[in-house]
Write a structure and sequence with these properties.
The chain is of the alpha+beta class. The protein is built from 20 helices and twelve strands.
């Protein structure tokens, strides 16, 4: 073919400059295409014995089979896992990229228990414009250093500072919910999400944005829109290229939302840095005047970041701080909001469980409407089991992915280095061998005596292993606090059955049709 390019024009003449330029252009493209197709073929060969969703089309993979609607897409994926439940292994092609889907405890353990398989897979790159390479998306030495540096910020003594914020925002939520008492059913998902957003804004950034009283704020809308855009792009190969993405309306929306999110974070970081500078100045002046300052100021995650240093004693850069703040804003509100909403729904569907929760709250917290303390939260053991069981049925993160850093064996199949695996807690938590009658809501599954012998990788709402969720203790405290305060005041009911929920497995597991509940005051409830 290349020879043909050189002899066109006949007569033995030297090749034209145009033909030479064409060769210089085509040759590297051809070489790239050859390497790419060779890699594609090798991947196909390596996985041909692994069962998969069919039909699978060349280059397009399984994409044409899946619905664009989030709820239908997620249902198709879960049905696929159920069809291969006995094998507990499934391959999925998203465009030209193969993914191995894992949803069996022993399979998941191979990946999560390893200190080598810590690299997040290709789809996470679409979070980089927003979150950079913070704790969620980084890998290797950067992740290890950052993880070690940030772990102390989630010590109980620091979480105690955050507890005040959780109590305050939960009481604002209760005041908002009062208007629904003895009224028609309403969707509680947004109310709880805004409460969680206010909590994470104030604990992560020290900024009260008042989302509960301003659901239409520009920042709030940008957070939700960005999450939707990222997930849609992850499952749409034609949107993967950055230049092509900007040609679509979605790409332009992405740019606008990104500007809003980063502008807000930039402003907050600048204000906080100036505030800390002023505090240091005032402290020096007070010491110089022989004064003693005893006032205790509530700390935010951002305060800790501005003073954090790595192993070499080097402080985080401005961009380092921004990517971690943005990461905790993203990870720290939608996940807890989803967990609390699903828990409320399940309590409304199972009144006998709700009565047990109310009895425990009455016993531990009494009648006084005071702020819940950490000691009281520790004693709310049945409520903790309720939340855990809700997270079993409806894990906030329905799936996450890793890239294998070395060859390994999973369920008898040799899996090559470089392959991306998707772990699906939603399917994993429904393994009937571990959780008999998996669709039933039974908090007793998490009583200490029932945990004996259970594979620790059979239940992973916060992931597991070296790269488990650093904020899980924060999330558990927030969920118990907010739910305890809501349930101290209200009895919850619903007529919405499970088939009407249509879970949407985007970045966060949400109910497609909302969670519709009715409220009664505890004094007039049947509890």
């Amino acid at each position: 073919m290349m020879m043909g390019l050189w002899i066109t024009g006949g007569g033995g003449q030297a090749p034209s400059w145009g033909a030479a330029a064409a060769v210089l252009l085509v040759a590297p493209l051809a070489a790239f295409a050859f390497r790419w197709l060779r890699t594609y073929y090798r991947r196909w060969q390596a996985l041909k014995l692994v069962p998969g969703i069919s039909p699978c089309y060349p280059l397009l993979g399984n994409v044409p089979l899946f619905e664009r609607n989030g709820a239908d897409y997620f249902e198709q994926l879960i049905l696929g896992t159920e069809a291969f439940r006995n094998i507990s292994l499934l391959k999925l092609w998203i465009g030209p990229l193969p993914f191995l889907i894992l949803y069996h405890a022993e399979s998941v353990e191979v990946v999560l228990n390893s200190s080598k398989h810590i690299e997040k897979s290709f789809p996470y790159k679409f979070l980089h414009p927003w979150l950079g390479t913070g704790l969620l998306t980084s890998t290797g030495d950067k992740w290890r250093s950052r993880r070690k540096m940030l772990t102390p910020t989630f010590h109980f003594t620091i979480l105690d500072d955050f507890l005040d914020v959780m109590n305050e925002q939960a009481h604002i939520l209760v005041q908002k919910l009062e208007k629904h008492v003895d009224k028609e059913p309403f969707d509680c998902f947004l109310d709880i999400t805004l409460c969680a957003l206010d909590i994470i804004c104030e604990t992560a950034m020290g900024k009260n944005i008042g989302a509960q009283n301003d659901k239409d704020s520009e920042y709030v809308q940008a957070v939700y829109r960005m999450s939707d855009l990222v997930h849609h792009r992850q499952k749409s190969p034609w949107l993967w290229n950055d230049l092509i993405y900007l040609l679509f309306q979605e790409g332009r929306e992405h740019s606008r939302s990104l500007k809003i999110l980063h502008s807000f974070t930039d402003q907050v970081i600048a204000e906080k840095a100036q505030e800390l500078k002023n505090q240091e100045q005032h402290k020096s002046e007070a010491v110089g005047n022989g004064e003693q300052r005893r006032d205790k100021k509530r700390r935010a995650f951002l305060d800790l970041l501005l003073n954090a240093t790595d192993e070499a004693g080097k402080k985080l850069s401005y961009l380092d701080i921004r990517e971690e703040v943005d990461t905790f804003m993203f990870e720290g509100h939608d996940t807890t909001a989803a967990a609390m909403t699903w828990t409320i729904y399940l309590l409304a569907r199972y009144p006998e469980v709700q009565r047990k929760v109310h009895n425990e709250l009455d016993e531990i917290l009494g009648d006084a409407d005071h702020h819940v303390t950490l000691d009281e939260l520790k004693k709310l053991r049945y409520l903790e089991c309720v939340i855990k069981e809700a997270l079993r049925l409806f894990p906030s993160v329905p799936y996450f992915a890793r890239t294998l850093s070395e060859d390994c064996c999973i369920r008898g199949h040799k899996v090559c280095k470089g392959l991306d695996v998707i772990i699906i807690p939603y399917a994993l938590h429904r393994d009937p061998d571990t959780f008999p009658e998996p669709e039933e809501f039974r908090p007793e599954r998490f009583f200490p005596e029932n945990l004996a012998g259970r594979n620790p990788y059979a239940y992973i709402p916060f992931s597991a292993g070296p790269r488990n969720c650093i904020g899980q203790r924060f999330a558990q405290i927030e969920e118990k606090t907010v739910l305890a305060i809501i349930l101290r005041h209200f009895w919850v009911e619903t007529t919405q059955n499970r088939k009407e929920l249509y879970p949407v497995g985007d970045l966060i597991l949400r109910p497609n049709n909302g969670i519709w509940i009715q409220l009664k005051r505890r004094s007039s409830s049947s509890s």
